[in-house]
Structures are given as structure tokens and as C-alpha cells.
Specification:
By secondary structure, the protein is of the alpha/beta class. It folds into two domains: about 80 residues, Orthogonal Bundle (434 Repressor (Amino-terminal Domain)); about 180 residues, Endonuclease, Chain A (2-Layer Sandwich). About 50% of the residues lie in helices and about 15% in strands. It is built from 13 helices and six strands. It has a six-stranded mixed β-sheet with strand order 3-2-1-4-5-6, with helices on both faces. α1 runs antiparallel to α5. It is elongated, with a radius of gyration of 22 Å. It comes from Actinomadura barringtoniae.
Length: about 270
């Protein structure tokens, strides 16, 4: 797995990193010296110790053999695997999911992919397997469960605004993409859901800075959520949330009306 610019904050990964640093320093080895002894680059050792990469099973076993730890690092590696679903979620996203369940009004803008709230199982699988094949089944099950919000006894009012490129980017296969678009059309028939599309070729508009979600609650509070390069940010400060609400409204102002958006979705389906 490639290194990240931001460190992982999962407890199992942090524990592995701290133990590695402690055992290495206890025998007085530099990262390069340990890497040379094990056949790994010192940069990889540094990535693991700074929680910017996830150790492989082979690396854990090599550490156990070298330090004679009676399997300590392999047990820590197993714990990382067991909690990997938490590792793979963008920081900020678990808290967002808790808020999403309580929202009475949800506004989603998607620049590159259909929102997880509206993904079909096949579409979600194509996305998830590209990110983390080992945890795909668990993620997909949770994603499908998440969508029950839309048809619950007291569902939120939902606005979904899509950049047209989301419709045209083939995810998985043409059949998978076509079924995803059909699912969007069906969702748009729900009494609590409205879907509109920002036309391709629109030129610059505020949506090009990234996907965005606004959640509104019964007490009048609002939160915003953005995600970029695998890092999720939940914004709660009212003065900042107001700016995101304004950006969403500007984005929505660039979209086709709902009825015309359905026509666009059907037209793209026919082209696939």
C-alpha cells in the first residue's frame, strides 16, 4: 500500500508504529540499519513508524524473527487487518455518518462519483474493490444499509446535485453504469428526493472545487462535510458552514431543473 501524506490515526497502526520504534531504538539501530538487515528501504521503515503506511504481513514476520518477539508484530498486524474497515474510512467520515442519520434535510453535490447514499451494489463494488479489495464486502454491506435512510418511516428531504461527468464516467462497466443511472431515475421518483444535473461544458463554477454535503437538523443547526484526497472534514462552526451552504446554492443554481435533469440522465443511458 502506498504511503499517505497524512498519518493514519487508527489505534492498531499507531501501536505497531510505537512498538517498532521502541524495539529498534532499544537495540540502537537506525532506520537504515534495520532496513538493511531486513531487506527493506529505510524510507519504508520511516513510513511505518510515522503511521503513513500499513505494514505487510511479511514485514511483521520479519520483525518477529529479527527481534525474537514471539509473534508480537504478527499479532499487531492481525489486529490492523481486523480493524481495517476503520483504517480505510476517511478521517471525519464516521462522525459524518452519525450526523447523516439524524438529518432532516440533506444536500449532496457530487463532482466525480455518485454519492454513496445513491450507489447501486455493483457500482459500489467497482469503487470499493479499486480502493480496498479485502474489505469491499463489508463496506458494501454498510453502504447498502446506509441507504435505508431514504425510505425510512421518517426520511429526510434529500437534494442530490450531480456534475454531468458523474453520469458519463463509466465505473465498473457500461452495464454497471447504465444500471446506476436507472437507479438514480428511480430514486428521483421518491417523494422526498430531488435530483438535478449541472450540464457538461458549463465552464468554471463553484462545484469544481470538490464534492460537498450539507446536513440540516431539527434544532436549526447545520453541518458541512467535504472530502479530498482521502481526507474527510466535518465542518460545524456556523460561520464556516454558512459559506458552504452558499456554495451549494451557487452550484445548484448552475444545474438543469429536475425534469430536464431526468431527461439528461436518460439520454446518457441511451449513449452507453
Amino acid at each position: 500500500m502506498p504511503a499517505r501524506s497524512e498519518p493514519y490515526d487508527a489505534p492498531a497502526i499507531i501501536t505497531f508504529a510505537k512498538e517498532l520504534t521502541a524495539w529498534r531504538e532499544n537495540v540502537g539501530l537506525s532506520k537504515k540499519e534495520l532496513g538493511d538487515a531486513l531487506g527493506y528501504a529505510d524510507s519504508y521503515i520511516g513510513q511505518i513508524e510515522h503511521c503513513k503506511n500499513i505494514p505487510s504481513e511479511e514485514f511483521a514476520e520479519a520483525l518477529d524473527t529479527f527481534f525474537k518477539t514471539n509473534g508480537l508484530f504478527h499479532r499487531l498486524w492481525q489486529r490492523i487487518v481486523e480493524t481495517r474497515h476503520a483504517v480505510s474510512l476517511p478521517p471525519g467520515f464516521p462522525e459524518f455518518l452519525k450526523r447523516e442519520k439524524r438529518a432532516i434535510f440533506s444536500k449532496y453535490f457530487c463532482l466525480t462519483l455518485v454519492s454513496g447514499m445513491f450507489q447501486t451494489e455493483d457500482y459500489a463494488r467497482a469503487v470499493m474493490e479499486a480502493r480496498d479489495k479485502h474489505s469491499a464486502d463489508e463496506f458494501i454491506a454498510k453502504r447498502m444499509e446506509r441507504q435505508s435512510i431514504l425510505t425510512s418511516d421518517s426520511p429526510p428531504q434529500v437534494l442530490l446535485t450531480l456534475d454531468e461527468r458523474v453520469l458519463r464516467e463509466v465505473i465498473g462497466s457500461r452495464d454497471v453504469q447504465r444500471r446506476q443511472l436507472q437507479s438514480l431515475l428511480e430514486a428521483s421518483e421518491l417523494p422526498n428526493v430531488a435530483i438535478d444535473v449541472v450540464p457538461q461544458g458549463r465552464g468554471y463554477y463553484p462545484g469544481l472545487t470538490g464534492s460537498l454535503t450539507i446536513l440540516s437538523f431539527s434544532d436549526g443547526a447545520n453541518v458541512a462535510y467535504t472530502e479530498s484526497q482521502g481526507v474527510g472534514t466535518l465542518i460545524e462552526l456556523p460561520s464556516l458552514v454558512t459559506g458552504y451552504i452558499m456554495r451549494y446554492e451557487l452550484i445548484k443554481g448552475c444545474a438543469h431543473p429536475v425534469s430536464d435533469s431526468r431527461t439528461v440522465i436518460r439520454a446518457v443511458m441511451e449513449e452507453l
